[in-house]
From TrEMBL:
Keywords: Calcium, Hydrolase
Protein name from the UniProt record: Glycoside hydrolase family 92 protein
Example of a GO MF term: peptide-N4-(N-acetyl-beta-glucosaminyl)asparagine amidase activity
Pfam short name (any one): Glyco_hydro_92N
Subunit structure: Monomer.
Cofactor annotation: Ca(2+)
The keyword Kinase is assigned to this record: no
Amino acid sequence: MIRQRILIFLLVSGIGFIRNAIAASFVKNPVDYVNPYMGNISHLLVPTYPLVHLPNGMLRVYPQRGDYLSDKIHGLPLLQISHRGSFVFNLSPFQGEESELVRVFDYEYDNESIKPYHYKVDLCQQQLHAEFAPSHQSAIYHFDYKQTAKTPYLIFNGGNGELEINGNVVSGYQNIWNNLRVYIYMEMDVKPENIGVFHSGQWKKDMRKAQGEGMCVVASWPTASLSLNVRYGVSYISVEQAERNLRREIRNYDLEEVAAAGCRIWNDELSKIQVAGGTENDRYVFYTSLYRCMERPVNISEDGRYYSVYDNKVHSDEGYAYYTDDWIWDSYRAAHPLRLLIDQKKQIDIIRSFSRMAEQGRDHWLPNFPEVTGDSRRMNCNHGVSVAADAWYKGVCDFDLLKMYRYAKASIEEKTLAPWSSAKAGWLDRFYQEKGYIPSLAEGEKETVPEVNSFEKRQSVAVTLGTSYDQWCLARIAKALGLEEEASHYYSCSYNYRNLFHPKTSFFHPKDKHGNFIEPFDYRFSGGMGAREYYGENNAWVYRWDVQHNAGDLVKLMGGPDQFIRNLDATFSEWLGRSKYEFYAQLPDHTGNVGQFSMGNEPSLHIPYMYNFAQAPWKTQKRIRSLIHQWFRNDLMGVPGDEDGGGLSSFVVFSMMGFYPVTPGLPVYHIGSPFFSAVRVKLENGRTLDIVARNCSVDNKYIQSARLNGESWNKPWFTHQDIREGGKLEFVMGNRCNMEWGSDADAIPPSFDMME
């Protein structure tokens, strides 16, 4: 209560409010509000994982277990090469008899503690204590062997490759994919008395090298009680580079020093956005979400060089770090726009990385799911073009736009639009270019197009809508390049969503190759598993709103603002249509339901902001507050769906600040409802964006009035230009909906290219 009174005084006085309120709020540092366990138990599909890493660092680990409910961990990890999976190498400390050795121990564990920069755990039956701290491309483990009468061992396990142990050094590589290898160089601070190779269930003493599948080397010590430190570096280039990475980052065996450095790095990164006020739960949710936005993509430049799987060569990065492991279908919506706000240099490096992947690849297509092992071409559409367009129109231009345009154009026109495929364009694509939509099959009709994945299907409506948006982004880039004829062509293509709009139902409805709507049709359940015949992971109720680039036109198609609002309201109130177990048996990704809205899947993220297009911003304010408080919490089930490396979390970060980028590629932010009394965003240029929400509380969710940069503001949106050089956005909040604020016809947010 005393702190609240102090905060109210600061609000009223306005003297140094932002600085003082934030300072008063931080009894804890930002990193102390990160809970890596948040969401570790999944509502249905994949949980979050408690990652230990530095922001966008190449070296990431988390305990190797199914989820938080698992009572055992599978050894101790050394490197995770892709988001939520694909570990390489493994450590197993052990005390006991030689005859008990195995390649990897499954440990019962307890007293586990995970922070972004530090991990510690007790391995119960072994009576071992382990700790871990990472740097960017290296890390350190500490082990306490506590059994006084048993021999200590350390087992270094790999997959297919080569490992060698010489004295206190282990080095080698593991083959990953085609010509890709991960190299490791590791040192122990206590030289082992015995070394050997573990092969075919036996320890062969004094052998130094293990090769082939299931390679494994072992060290042991004569002292029963042992305190051991192990530091290592990893590389995609060579063992020698792995050693250089280690020596550059970790110069001794002091784990606490490495953890302290990691803590400082995390605090610096998380402090790019500072908040005051809100509830304790709000602060945990906010900073944990921001931490999750900083997992990927990962920087794999090593001393100015990187290994590219696209041409199997080592390249100079020419001063621009090389990033990979980015699921763009998930991250283009908000994770990339967030980085444009707080780390433009990194975002430039990422965009240049996309361009390099296309340049070095066989077909010169932009990636859509780049991973360490290459572009896996998952999901649908080619939203890398959105990332480039969004940066350019926000004035972040330090990349070759013409190259990006050519690669994006090729990826849309020369690669098939069939989901989950890297095949070249075929009949489906020619049909789309001629008719402006992807044709659908009737229920039971046999697939004849070879490019179509047997499980992922055509996703005909989702691909039509998503490609319409991609072509709008292409048009935006062509216009910036002065290619007026091409811009005009792609602007025309960007209306292709109209070809599937059913005027009688106001849904996007699949058509067959003859132009007929598929009938009969159920907007909840038609389309098979994940509705993939026509949509993608979500049903027609979600894709009803998938016109990010031209919502103004969608309002008109639906019959005007009033009907548009009724349709939006229905999305949040329409019942599932079946029991939950039947609904999720067919639509397992469609989680976090409020009616037919899915808070757990990325295509829904912009939907609650769509009320702003229909002169009802108070409904956006109400909905944003309720959705986040319903589905994002500081607990083990506090994330409603698959968190794809910032896909969902970036929605939370933006929305809790009070605004959201509904249309990447258009430099406009939609205003929602701020969760905090004060937010300070540190921009790349050294300026700050300050957001003040007077009277903000759990109940006071509605905007009563606003000011932007000192001027009265009655619009539920603002431009990137308004805040690019810093600024101040001020709200007065209340507990009753203000239906007047932001509701004028001239306050409607722009869409398409209405700004020009």
